[in-house]
Amino acid sequence: MIEQMMRNFFLFLGENKKMTKLAKKYGLSLGASRFVAGATLEDSLDALRKLNKKGFSITLDHLGEFVDNEKEANEMTDHCIEAIEFIDKHNLDSQLSLKITSMGLDISRELCMKNMRRIMDKAKQHGVFVTIDMEDHSRCGVTLEVFKELKQEYDNIGTVIQAYLYRTIDDLNELDEYQPRLRIVKGAYKEPEEVAFPNKKDVDQNFKNLIQIHLLRGRFTSIATHDDEIIRFTKELVKRHNIPKDQFEFQMLYGIRPERQEEIIKEGYNMRIYVPYGDDWYGYNMRRLAERPANVAFVLKGIMKK
Ligand code: FDA
């Protein structure tokens, strides 16, 4: 009950535009560095190299929330292009993740597509794979449409499906003709009961179901979770069906359960770490706190250090 209240509180804070702008002004503080590699790409390089050296693949994400004008959308696009060039220049084993609202989706679909094609052309040129993150349910349909359109032009693109949405099973079936590489997650936004399973038990069961269907269809699957039970289920499933290790990977967020991340690599599985960077860390951090209010301790430590 208290946990649920805290979860709602952090999700509410994370969606607050004024707080986002304030937090940006104060720079990388409030314990953000535990979950964010650095304020710039150069600042993040050491952390990225360390991860690759340990055997982790990476997906880089330039943080940004609430882009509501064309100038900001174009700047966010430039950041993605810069990240692609950076990955290639430093020979990093890394993909790119992005949110299409950052590329201008809420301003116009046309602007978003123009920016996405700029990114995808560069990504193709440098051999970098791009994943479109999934945002809140109101943008799920349009995100999948954008993905489908781009997938017909580029093969180095994937997207995300969320186990908490009722619609996702149908989406998975409709997406299959595109032979998509999909990241499957529980879902990070505060969603109403009309669209999302309110109980964790149902979300977890749906998560397992989606993983099984996608893997057994022979599609590449990224299982993005810190949940030991889902990880156990996946390991057993791939063993039972002789699914090769290059058809799936586990993914976790930078700074969350780092010891578990290393154990999974040592067991011989592929593990990709989602690494956010940039000064717009606020909303991202609030969602991490909502998932696990125990992380508040890290944030408080960050404040004390200031
Ligand atoms: P959950 O939060 O239920 O945690 C399960 C268990 O994991 C806990 O009971 C605990 O045992 C353990 N655990 C979790 N956090 C821990 C911690 N900090 N320390 C110790 N143990 C911990 N969402 C979205 O909506 N769109 C997206 O595009 C993405 N993309 C994405 C990429 C990647 C790589 C990841 C890992 C996640 C996302 N997400 C996401 C977020 C996702 O939807 C979800 O909110 C979080 O992953 C949290 O859910 P879990 O599956 O980890 O399980």
TrEMBL record:
Annotated SUPFAM superfamilies: FAD-linked oxidoreductase (SSF51730)
Known pathway: Amino-acid degradation; L-proline degradation into L-glutamate; L-glutamate from L-proline: step 1/2
CC cofactor: FAD
InterPro entries, alphabetized: FAD-linked_oxidoreductase-like, PRODH_bac_arc, Proline_DH_dom, Proline_oxidase
Gene3D superfamilies: 3.20.20.220
Organism listed in the record: Scopulibacillus daqui
Pfam families: Pro_dh (PF01619)
Catalysed transformations (reactions): L-proline + a quinone = (S)-1-pyrroline-5-carboxylate + a quinol + H(+)
The protein's name in its UniProt record: proline dehydrogenase
Residues of the Proline dehydrogenase domain: 46-299
Molecular functions per Gene Ontology: oxidoreductase activity
EC number: 1.5.5.2
Family annotation (PANTHER family): PROLINE DEHYDROGENASE 1, MITOCHONDRIAL, PROLINE OXIDASE
UniProtKB keywords: FAD, Flavoprotein, Nucleotide-binding, Oxidoreductase, Proline metabolism
